[in-house]
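User: Sequence in, structure out. Go.
Assistant: Echoing your sequence, followed by the structure tokens.
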Amino acid sequence: AMSSEAEWELWYWPLAGRGEFVRLMFEEAGVAYKEVNDPQPLTDKFKGQSKVGWPVFAVPMIKKGDFELGQTGTVCRYLGKQFGLFPASEADQFRADQLCTTVMDYIAEGRLAFHGKNHYETYYNQQEFTQPYIDYFIANRIPKFLPHFEATLRYNNADKPESADSLYCFGNSLTYVDLCLLHVLRATESQFPDAWKANISSYPLLARFKQQMESRPRLKAYFASARCRPFEGNSMM
């Protein structure tokens, strides 16, 4: 059972990747968690499918006692509800679900652009083959997703003054999907610095939102700490 004494565990590779969405939930909530990063058990349990108990298809996985849960968006929604980072109204809860799913679609597309030949082979074995997919993603997909995210912020913050220092996706308080959006913006900037510079001036709310989120005290401390894993340098991971 899930006892309150049991510590949260995050099972994920020792890199930013999709695990970063989950780390931001724990870090912003100030909830202790332990990382299980050793590649061997992760490979055996998930790639080798030797995991017992509740079936989880792939990491990231969270675990507390014998409660285990996978799927990045689902994990973020669950932790959002546990940690009070959840929209108040039912309508906004489902809208947040929609936005979270779109964020996960975006990073999945970004990752696959680097794996045009084989989704699971390293990028470095298919660099030349997959470059056109990366170019297409930069030219056609980043300019499709960023304005959608900008429009979401505009919809919720339309009645706030230009100088408002708290932009949120829903209502007037932080929710899990703000953290998900923050991560995907950071991943875009890290992976595609030139495209980011070329695009972001068109999206002033996104730029302000990212800056505000990164200066929240717990997140700021986390990003400056050794706990914060570096981006891998390919695949938005």
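User: And one key feature?
Assistant: The chain has two domains: 8-82, 90-216.
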